[in-house]
């Protein structure tokens, strides 16, 4: 099991690194462009694109490994909410695996001289698949927040505010995903998407403070 300090560092620093990578990426690639335009922008700026892609993947792995560690620490036969924490841990690990698959596909697609391209592979198709894979994780992300937040509320191992916000943001993400096209879905998506890194980083900070006080 991961130490409490490591879990806190992962959850605190992961969202910060992710935001930095997204800001750098926005400097050379328009978020509103087509897949073909995004792929061209990444291919033309391959070194920078590789750094941001790998950096963002490391950030996301760090976040979800941290969430996995927190959820695992809440499991136990005599701990209330243990089953919910266990489900959160499973989905957090699943997300980490999905990101690794997407990372591999995207790096192959953006490298013009890769063996995949030389052998006739469809770079645009591969890039679109990698993006589809990444976008599929939002359902699992909503479940992680919902289960983890509920477990925190039941177990009371942290502030109820933390548990309540995790649960709220999880519900927002899930409702937005399953209500795509509705006028209010965009607002729910914005709340859940923006709230996730904020509450994760804040929870990491709280975990670090708890570890410091206990030592």
Low confidence ranges: none
Structural class: mainly alpha
Number of helices: 9
What is the ordering of alpha helices and beta strands?
HHHHHHHHH
Question: Termini separation (Å)?
Answer: 18 Å
Number of strands: 0
Cα-atom radius of gyration: 18 Å
Average pLDDT level: 86
Approximate shape? globular
Overview of this structure, please?
- With 215 residues, the chain is mainly alpha-helical.
- It is 81% helix and 0% strand.
- The chain is built from 9 helices and no strands.
- Helix 1 packs antiparallel against helix 9.
- The radius of gyration is 18 Å and the shape is globular.
- The model has no long low-confidence stretch (mean pLDDT 86).
Which descriptors apply to this entry?
9 helices, single chain, 81% helix, mainly alpha
Would you kindly provide a brief summary of this structure?
With 215 residues, the chain is an all-alpha fold. It has helices at residues 4-26, 35-44, 46-73, 82-110, 115-118, 123-135, 137-155, 160-178, 185-214.
List the helices and strands and how they pair.
Elements: H1 4-26, H2 35-44, H3 46-73, H4 82-110, H5 115-118, H6 123-135, H7 137-155, H8 160-178, H9 185-214
Helix pairs in contact: 1-3, 1-9, 2-3, 3-4, 4-6, 4-7, 7-8, 8-9
């Amino acid at each position: 099991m991961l130490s409490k300090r490591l879990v806190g560092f992962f959850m605190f620093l992961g969202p910060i690194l992710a935001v930095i990578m997204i800001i750098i990426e926005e400097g050379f690639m328009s978020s509103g462009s087509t897949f073909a335009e995004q792929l061209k922008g990444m291919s033309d700026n391959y070194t920078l694109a590789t750094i941001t892609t790998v950096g963002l993947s490391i950030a996301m792995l760090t976040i979800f490994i941290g969430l996995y560690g927190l959820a695992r620490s809440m499991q136990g036969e005599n701990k209330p909410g243990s089953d919910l924490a266990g489900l959160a841990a499973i989905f957090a690990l699943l997300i980490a695996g999905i990101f690794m698959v997407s990372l591999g596909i995207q790096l192959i697609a953006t490298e013009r001289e890769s063996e995949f391209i030389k052998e006739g592979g469809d770079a645009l198709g591969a890039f679109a698949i990698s993006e589809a894979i990444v976008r599929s994780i939002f359902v699992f992300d909503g479940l992680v927040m919902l289960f983890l937040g509920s477990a925190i509320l039941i177990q009371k191992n942290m502030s109820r505010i933390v548990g309540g916000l995790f649960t709220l943001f999880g519900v927002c993400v899930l409702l937005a995903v399953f209500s795509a096209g509705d006028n209010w879905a965009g607002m729910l998506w914005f709340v859940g998407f923006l709230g996730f890194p904020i509450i994760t980083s804040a929870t990491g900070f709280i975990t670090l403070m708890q570890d410091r006080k206990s030592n």
